[in-house]
Amino acid sequence: MTVPVIDVRDLKTHLVTRWGTIKAVDGVSFSVSEGETLGLVGESGSGKSMTCLSILRLAPRPAARILGGEVRLDGDDLLKKSEREMQRIRGKRVAMILQDPMSSLNPVFSIGMQVREPLSSYHGLSGKALASRAVQLLASVGISSPAARLRAFPHQLSGGMRQRVVGAMAISAPPRLLIADEPTTSLDLTIQAQYLRLLKDLQERHRLAMIFVTHNLGIVAKMCDRVAVMYAGRIVEAGSVETIFGAPRHPYTRALLDSVPRLGVQTEWLTAIEGQPPDLAALPRGCAFSPRCAHAMERCRAEEPPEFALGAGHTSRCWLEAPA
Amino acid sequence: MSAALLEAEALTKHFPVRRGILGRSAGLVRAVDSVSFTIESGQTLGLVGESGCGKTTTSRMILNVEPPTSGAIRFDGAPLSALDRGGLSRYRRAVQAVFQDPYASLDPRMRVGSIVGEPLVINERPTGPALRKRVLELLDLVGLPERAAELFPHEFSGGQRQRIAIARALALSPRLVVLDEPVSALDVSIRAQILNLLRDLQRRLGVAYLFIAHDLAAVAHMSHTIAVMYLGKIVELGAAAEVALSPKHPYTQALFSAALPLDPGARGEEIILSGEIPSPLDPPPGCRFHTRCPHVMERCRRDEPPLAPESGRLVACHLYPG
Question: Based on CB atoms within 10 Å of each CB, which residue in A88, A304, B58, B256 is the most buried?
Fold first, then answer.
């Protein structure tokens, strides 16, 4: 049994707002081992990004409060760390790539200054060693003429190139855990294909544990070993990528997979999921998906389903799995 | 039998780039370069390609908000350039649009009833009761309840807002609707609802669509014909199923192989292009795709391939000498 790099247990992050308390992350548990990729799938508001921000203790304050749970990185509970200790963990042991590279890069500093910063502060590099390591890093993410690019400013690079720079900075430590939050959503398709290949290479080279947040099911199928499907702040189904795509059990997972048009499958009508995404400030009683679920029973509207184990790391939060 | 509703012939748009305070010309961006296609009555043309390929400029020329540099658009056989004021105003009524972001395209201070009724008020000046009746019909058509008319856009979710935008686009009974990324801003679970609605409306109203999207599976699902653009040129044009399932142009092949299937077993047969999309300010000579093409030949660097018939469609590539 491998020891997981990151082990999240019963994480609860709630947002306290004028309109009441929103349970953005409500009892989420998962773990990721070395060299493994977990796909975190869900719609906007399902809690996937808030889960990642909570791991880094960057959930927006004062609204967000982490009310409970554990986030163990190589055994250390990050929720018990001081802010000063967290600053030494972010970027060094846990790195994150965001959707928009311009939100990670400072427009007024050259690429070189930004790439060198973590190298000098974390690794104490300076002078020639620092300069050559920066060039080497850019080259490792497939940027051509890296020495020239180091003198460029972010606006002078294309979107795909900027995201590569962010990738280079993320692996500079290299970290134990890489969180990629929709890293290719702003990229064109052919550039996305290049970037996904790059992430896979970097992961294999450094044995990174990776959490890949996306709503694109095709990317999950390609990139991930295991999948956790989130709905309204909870993981409703989790399992290996083969299980989730081949034999999904939760009605939400099944409906989601059915609703996506597929190349080569000619259908008159898509199987749409009725209703609207849940309003987190006014969740229904019982199962949050029950108002949209084709299989909803009396019990679903009254009681929240617990997590049922279906074997081989496959779990589903659904009353359909309750032993009769 | 369907008939050509809109024909674009050698449609071209060049934007001059000006530098300095004197506005000296510093070159041309060839955003759209001699593009020809037909949209049939009641059918959907899907337009795909990456950023900068000219899809949006093409749609803006069709919406008559951007005059073409050269080339012609014919609607019902009549060239737009020959239309008088009345003719143009009829054209604008017949061609409507739905945009990507339903948060940006609806006025937050107008009630939904006024938003949907505004095109009617401006163009047809109906009486109060007639207007109200038509607005409620339109809301019903897109699956919204009557009371929606009294509410404001912020009271609706993204999918419902897109329904409002569709109702507004249909208010003047258009014959062509330009759908520019109509579902990309919506949640995955809502997209199928809107795609089904659009298809249902096409059946019932016989409206034609120009469907622009980067989700290739959605385009293949919605379209009768697909045109693939690269750097201002159409590189492949044909029946949707054929272009999507057996693409001929190397760019189309790479594009569709980058559209990832929902199957973890299908890993590893993809074509990954090297390099980035060149700037349309200085497109490569010869075939514009030759800098990234895995099958590039000497000839591709020199001669631009014409869009010519190949396996029941049009392809612009020297691999198929015809």
Answer: B58
